[in-house]
Amino acid sequence: MKDDAEPVILDDPGRIKALSHPLRRRILHRLRVHGPATSTTIGEVLGANTGTTSYHLRQLEKHGFIEEVPERSGGRERWWRPAGQRDLRMPPPEALAPQDRPVLAELLRAGHAEDMEILARLPAGYEREPAWARLSRGFAHMTEEGLAAFFEDYVALLHRHAHGPEDAPPGARPLHIRLFSLPADET
To answer: Which interval of the chain is the signal sequence (predicted)?
Structure first.
C-alpha cells in the first residue's frame, strides 16, 4: 500500500470535524487494521447499529477518508476500505478561521487521548513481545529547517516500509507508530 502522493493538509473544517467524531475514528481504525468491511460487520464489532455505521461510513467517504471496494460490493451490500495510506497533516491553527480552530483543537485532543492509551500499553507490550514493541527516545539540537527535513525523511521511510491490510506480506502485523517533537527548552 505505497502512496507517493503529496501530503494532505487537513485545512477544511468539514474534514477535520468528520475525522474528530469518536465513532468515525474507531471505524477508520478498524478498516486500517483489519481491512475492508461492511457497515454490518463494523457495527457488530463496534456495538453500533447498521444505520449508524452506514451514516458514519458515508461521512468518511464524503470527506475522502474511505472508499467503496467495487469488486466486493453488490446490491445493498457495500464494502469499504481506507482511501489509501495518505500523509494526513494538521494545519497550523492560524491557517483556519478563528471560529474553526476549536474543531482542530478537538481533533488534536482526540488524537492525544488515543496516543496516551497506546503509550499506557507500551510497558506490558514490551514485556510480552519485545520484538514488536520497539522504542527509541532521542534528543537533538536542530534548526527549524533541519527538523522539517528530518520529519519528511521519517514520513518517506514509513511509507517505504508500510503495507496496508490488503497487500501486507505473510507475518505482517498492524502497528501503532508515532513521532512527535517538542521544544525541550520550554517548561
So the answer is: none
